[in-house]
Model the fold of this input.
Amino acid sequence: MKFPVGINKNTFITYKNKENLEKDRKIKSEVFDWDSRHPKSLVEMCVEKLSLNWMGEPKLEDLVAKDREYFLQILDTNIPLQILVDNIQNDIFWKKCYISKWSDIPIEINDKSWITIFMERHYADFLEHLNPRHYDPEKVRNLVKLCGPFIQTLSIRSLVPSDLNDQRNTSPEMAGLISGQRQDMSKINNKTMETMPRDHISLHAALSSLTHLSELHITFQQRFVGIQYRKDQFQFTINDAKNLARGLEKCTQLKILRITRSNMNCQKLKYILRGLLDNQNIDTLDFSHCKIADDGASSIAKSISKRDKIRSLILADNIFGPVGIEYISQVLNHTSCGLRTLDLRLNNKLGSEGIAQLAVAIARGCNLTSLNISGCGIKPHALLKPPAGVWSAINADNPPTCGDLLARAIGLVKTPLRSLDISINNIGTPSDNALSNAICLSYLVDINLKRSGMGSMAMAIAESAAAAQRLRREAEKGIRFRRSAGRLVQARRVVKGMNIGGKDPYN
Done:
């Protein structure tokens, strides 16, 4: 009897009884080799013989259900993939294929079939280990034809750059000896490295036939470098951007695009956005940990203004400043903008001036429900050039701080914000008190104020108000969660003492 594929081996080892426990127990369900000494039946011997050299014949439908199950249980997973796809749709068998090839199990399956999970991982691994010098368009085309109908999500964690050409001519050392002149080898090597192209495989053919692709995540770097480390192994070239853009033009069903941890600047970003020009289904754009400057932020703002279905924009850890965020802030107030989530964490070049522009957009009535400005360099000093035309009561002799503008924007009743992260900043006093009072008057239910520069009292009041608002919303929806008594009592006191919503729903 074979070990069942549906049982995790770690679970089996954990719950397996020791030999010294329950010695008198006769029936042991954890012993799967109980029939190892039993003679095999003629049917089992025939099924085993068929599984040894099986190449699609006989058909699985020709076998009895019991024999078919045993046949799939002992069938080798190294059979050519084309034969398996054409003849086997059993989900348990494809799970066995996945486990036999990779040790890790995907965390988020999302009700996908195991054949889909296997094909997505198999195709991604093929692209990740493919050297551009060994690129065979026909082989890629055949693999796309085989795996394409099953691929919905493609995650490429690294790509192999093209190797340097072999120097078979006279070496620089020999050239120096022949000419009688010494040459600086480091300069020669650096110059050679800079002139050599470092393009990755062309993703045009790899993506153009994936008609069901809805999510794409690419990282242009190498995960395993070894002793042959070079800086140019992490480049994202112009040709890479052009080929990727050509492939994105064919992915009309794409909803989520993530290009992260790559050397993507403004020029390359424009090619990518140009490839998405005809795509009206895009929902999420994630360009985290890249090198997008103000010009790139302007291109993103123009792209958002033309699509009302984009709901999430993630630009964490880039290099744009107040000028770039001003373009995005202006788009947030357009009636056609449907953006709900904006993640700007770790953009320390924004500073107080950049976040002030964002506060103006919030005050004017944008549709954002989640905002992350963690580690954006907010300072407690007054703004040098505060945004004009929003609060006429602000005197030029007493300019506001960034914390003051955030407090005025968040405290407005029409602000739809529900989640706010302003951690790792320096709000300072007395702006922290104004921001705390604004949070009490808002609809925020999820806030992160760790290391935000706010005082302990102001932070406690704001967090209690957000907890009370969250409890109130859960009570309105009929949801009951187990809460600690101290936190619940504290939230009730805030509701009662600050009068932020009238009657307590728990009384």
Summary: The CA atoms of residues 77 and 97 lie 6 Å apart. The radius of gyration is 30 Å.
